[in-house]
Each structure stands twice: as structure tokens, then as C-alpha cells.
């Protein structure tokens, strides 16, 4: 099950930041289009970082479910730090393909 974070209390600021990040990428791509500078944004999904794990407790609470239930609902969408790092490194090698794009893990 996937859900939109914007509907969850305390996630609005995060969603605004993520939207702003994508729009900044779009703006920079347009401004740097005829240069050798590549611009793209990565939305890896839920990466198992210490900060994310703490945030999951808050999100689950606002959803009215136990933290364990949140993990079960999203088990196919949570990636480890190593996988996220590997994906980032590969994206750098393929920057021509991703220039001006938003890359998502899911």
C-alpha cells in the first residue's frame, strides 16, 4: 500500500520541501540546458536511515497504526542505505540519461 504523505499530520512541510526540490531541478535544468552541467533529482523512497526510522514512529502514530504495521504495509518499498548509495553512484555514471529528470526508486 502506498500513501500520499501530504495527508498525514506533520508531513506537510516535508512534502513542500520535496516539491520545491523537484521544481528547483526543473528551473536549473532550463537555465543550464546549453552547458555541460547535468541536473537531476533523486527521490529514493523510504531509505532506512536513523532519521527515517525515528520519523516512521511519528508517521505511524498519526496514521493510528503501530510502527510494526507501518513496516509490514511498506516492506516492499523500504530500501537500505547501501542500496540507495549504489543507486546514486550509478545515476552519476548515467547522468546524460537522467539530465532534467526526477528519478524515483518506486
From TrEMBL:
<protein>
    <recommendedName>
        <fullName>SDR family NAD(P)-dependent oxidoreductase</fullName>
    </recommendedName>
</protein>
<dbReference type="InterPro" id="IPR036291">
    <property type="entry name" value="NAD(P)-bd_dom_sf"/>
</dbReference>
